[in-house]
Amino acid sequence: MAHGKSFRSQGKGTVRSYLPHLLCLLCLLGLSAGLTACRAPRGTADSAALPAPAEQVTAPPDVHAPPAQDAPRPDAQAPAPPAVPVPPPGDTARPPGSSRWSSSWPGLGGLFGNLGKLGGAGHAKAKAAPPVKANGESGATQVTVYYATDRQYLPEHNNYGWQPNRAAPYLTYGSVQVSIPDKRAPGELPLPPWYAILAGDDAQKYVLIQGVTRLSRVDFLATVQARIRAAPERHAAFIYIHGYSNSFDDAARRTAQMAVDLDIGALPVFYSWPSKGTFAGYEFDENSAEWTQAHLQAFLADFAEHSSATDIYIIAHSMGNRPMTVALANLLEKRPDLLPRFKQVVLAAPDINADVFRDQIAPRFASLKLPATLYASANDKAMRASYNFADWDRIGDIRGPVVGIPGMELVDASAVIMNFMGHDYFASNRVLLTDIATMIKTGQRAKNRGGLKGIPSQAPQYWAFP
Fold first, then answer.
1. CA 442, CA 448: separation in Å to the nearest integer?
2. DSSP 334-397
3. 262 with 339: CB under 8 angstroms?
4. Average pLDDT in the 200-214 region?
5. In the 8-state DSSP scheme, what is residue 358?
């Protein structure tokens, strides 16, 4: 089995050859900083958070105030939600394009995409967005996604950084307003390019964070309860757990995109653990994924017990599968009464030691009889890089020979068209989105879903896209 090439430092001569390019980049930084300085001075209105959306039942707290020290712990009982009219989970509004000089553009950290985030910063500064008009003229759909996170809050940005929130009770809650362009193929997640200094807030072209609203745990659960109970057909929610090298904003955008593209009538929720959000932060993210596991377990228990959702779907990606698998197994072994509420679990490109998964995790899922589907690919460059880093196979890398996983459905996604890295295929490819949506909407297992073939055909050990 090939190990592949690992990253090595280049010679001094190569570094010198890049100096002119670095100087050019510094000049661009100075130019953008000058443009930023030309903005009107910020007043209180500029630094305020986006007003609470119509479906929220309480006004949000001051976004500049630090988290309350007397916030209730996760084991506290949630009150019943007020009886207020709220839209069902699938309802969305359409926002106009925000001001040309608004800070929907992701700032200097977004100037060079992920490379600009190597220092660990690069979060969008969420100022007030203009009121949203539900007239369809803007060419964008606004989606409200809900979150729980154990990241550290940054009051000056009204956002969350990569540092862990080490102060009990660790978790904070809220919602994020995300605009999704209408003219966009399913799976596409268009972001402003680094050079879009003046036009990077075009909601008709780009997926944009329009605002972040923080909520107490009690208000979060009351809002979620009201939204789910107002659903016309079923009381459902899906929870997305992101992977390595993801910022808080990355997770919010991806959750909103999946909510639109999957179209499953489930309330979109994401859990954001403190990933450093950089390619160079792999070791930090490994430790963070281990640290967050207990907090994720507490959140899943709290949500299952108090959200009023009878149908909960888990979608975890990459390294996010590490805390998810352990947290969910621990929870359901301790609280089997909650098991019927978890209808489907999707493990997308899981960055988990293959032997640990087969020997220690999969048997626990099998004993719980938890409906779980694992998507893997032989063309996932991120999985290959993880293997090179750890020198140990990853369960999300399906290089042959392929062996089935007892008690869990394994789907080989190698045949689908992928982007360069081939790691986000679960949410960026129409075929995968269709398969996941069909599984969630109908509850069908792989043998009954169209578009999959069993291998071997007589007694399938795993499934594949033709």
1. 10
2. H-GGGGGGEEEEEEES--SBHHHIIIIIHHHHHHHT--EEEEEBTT-HHHHHHHHHHTS-BTTB
3. no
4. 93
5. I
Task: Work out the end-to-end distance of the chain between its first and last CA atoms, rounded to an integer number of angstroms.
Answer: 25
The larger pLDDT score, comparing residue 218 to residue 71, is at 218
> Which residues make beta-bridge pairs with 455?
462
Output the six-digit token pair for 113: 């995409």
Beta-carbon count within 10 A of 177 CB? 26
Task: Tally the residues of the chain.
Answer: 466
C-alpha dihedral (408, 452, 187, 265), degrees to nearest 10 = -70
Rounded distance, CA 112 to CA 247, Å?
15
> Tokens standing for 457?
């055909």
At residue 262's C-alpha, the angle toward residues 310 and 384, to 5°, is 105
70-128 pLDDT per residue, tens: 444 434 444 444 443 444 454 444 333 333 223 333 333 332 333 333 333 333 333 33
| pLDDT, tens only, 239-284 | 999 999 999 999 999 999 999 999 999 999 999 999 999 989 999 9
- The separation between CA 58 and the C-alpha centre of its own chain, rounded to angstroms, equals 25
The alpha carbon of 330 is separated from its chain's Cα centroid by a whole number of angstroms, namely 22
